[in-house]
């Protein structure tokens, strides 16, 4: 990256860091069970709600107790279960039509990050009926309040229940873009471990590594706060202590509860301190090939962390101590290396591959461009990289033929 672009990126990041304490960050009110929702809605005068989920979650019966509880309470519920793994503009527009037709008054997102992101983007479109989603993308373009949004995560990874971001896929252009505004933060979040007990091993693994990526990138960036550092360290500790337990035994309720807490804390951390090139590259892979976000993050994370070099070592050492994979006696460089290696070992134990299928060499320049546009200048990464440098990450995770 040339010196002028480098200076521009760092100045923008400095401005956001200085302005951060004045920004209206908030956290959702936490509930511990879906059984609390009917009473909450009635207290707020809601008589018609929209449930945004996906067919897999609904077919598994996870939404049934909530749907039955709402029905018994006299709350009419419209269900949109067409959300796909990387929610699209089409998903949002279909859901919006149903919301309007059914006269809904609030949004309930039930599922992983995809369902929650779809509901956030839906809220933005309801607030701005005359603007398309691509006109609302970017930072602070959703300045109107959206309908009351309640998030019920069924995975412990995305942290979407606490963040100000929604990631949407433009299926025509084959790339993802992000809507970011404080109005997109859900008003309520239900952290109910009961809805995560049936999460398959593979999703437990990749969504858990997604949470680890959030905490890690938030901590090593240049825009941390006391609160975000504390949240990130606690999230990392909980993930290293509980993720493999939840993976090995999905019925371990305590491990599931701890992972929900870790995911939430990681969301708190990166909402305030942003992420980095792991996320930017992963988003481009998801947009181009529909590669699950958590899988892409898990595979990329150790590679990108090593590429940052010594600029990230001190903070990676802190994370290694929090994770319990290094001791005070280890030097900074050794501790940083142990953290990166511990990530690789955790991936290996949970069957997460080191390479990703389907990446085509001819697509790499375009994906690197999208990743660079997303990350630069906003993400306060330890080491700045241009499109050419980012291209190297795709080659390193590309499956060899």
Please provide a written account of the structure.
By secondary structure, the protein is of the alpha/beta class. The protein has 15 helices and 9 strands. A 6-stranded parallel sheet has the order 1-9-6-4-2-3, sandwiched between helices. A 3-stranded mixed sheet has the order 5-8-7.
Characteristics of this structure?
single chain; 401 residues; alpha/beta; six-stranded parallel β-sheet; three-stranded mixed β-sheet; 15 helices
Concise synopsis of the structure shown:
By secondary structure, this protein is of the alpha/beta class. It has helices spanning 3-19, 37-43, 55-59, 64-72, 89-101, 113-127, 201-220, 226-248, 253-273, 277-289, 293-308, 313-323, 332-349, 364-375, 387-397, and strands at 29-31, 48-52, 76-80, 106-111, 138-139, 149-153, 165-170, 175-180, 188-190. Helix content is 53%, strand content 10%.
């Amino acid at each position: 990256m040339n010196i002028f672009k480098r200076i521009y990126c760092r100045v923008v990041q400095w401005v956001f860091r200085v302005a951060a304490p004045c920004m209206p960050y908030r956290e959702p009110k936490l509930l511990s069970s879906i059984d609390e929702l009917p009473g909450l809605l009635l207290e707020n005068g809601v008589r018609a709600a929209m449930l945004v989920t996906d067919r897999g979650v609904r077919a598994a019966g996870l939404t049934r107790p909530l749907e039955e509880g709402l029905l018994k309470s006299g709350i009419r519920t419209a269900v949109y279960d067409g959300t796909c793994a990387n929610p699209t503009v089409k998903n949002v527009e279909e859901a919006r039509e149903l919301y309007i037709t059914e006269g809904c008054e609030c949004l309930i997102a039930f599922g992983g990050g995809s369902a929650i992101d779809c509901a956030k983007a839906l809220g933005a479109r309801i607030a701005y009926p005359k603007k398309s989603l691509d006109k609302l993308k970017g930072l602070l373009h959703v300045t109107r309040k959206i309908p009351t949004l309640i998030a019920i995560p069924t995975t412990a990874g995305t942290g979407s229940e606490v963040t100000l971001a929604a990631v949407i896929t433009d299926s025509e252009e084959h790339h993802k873009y992000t809507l970011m505004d404080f109005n997109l933060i859900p008003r309520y979040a239900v952290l109910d471990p009961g809805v995560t007990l049936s999460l398959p091993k593979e999703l437990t693994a990749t969504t858990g590594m997604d949470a680890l990526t959030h905490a890690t990138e938030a901590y090593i960036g240049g825009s941390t706060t006391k609160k975000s550092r504390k949240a990130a360290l606690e999230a990392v500790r909980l993930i290293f202590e509980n993720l493999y337990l939840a993976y090995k035994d999905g019925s371990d309720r305590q491990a599931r509860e701890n992972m929900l807490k870790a995911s939430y804390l990681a969301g708190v951390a990166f909402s305030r301190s942003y992420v980095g090139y792991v996320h930017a590259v992963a988003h481009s892979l998801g947009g181009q090939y529909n590669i699950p976000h958590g899988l892409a993050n898990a595979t990329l994370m150790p590679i990108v962390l090593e590429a940052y070099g010594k600029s990230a070592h001190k903070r990676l050492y802190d994370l290694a101590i929090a994770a319990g994979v290094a001791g005070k006696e280890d030097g900074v460089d050794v501790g940083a290396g142990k953290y990166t290696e511990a990530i690789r070992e955790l991936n290996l134990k949970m069957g997460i591959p080191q390479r990703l299928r389907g990446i085509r060499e001819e697509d790499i320049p375009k994906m690197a461009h999208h990743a660079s546009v997303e990350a630069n200048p906003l993400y306060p990464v330890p080491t700045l990289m241009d499109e050419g440098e980012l291209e190297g990450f795709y080659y390193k995770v590309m499956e060899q033929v």
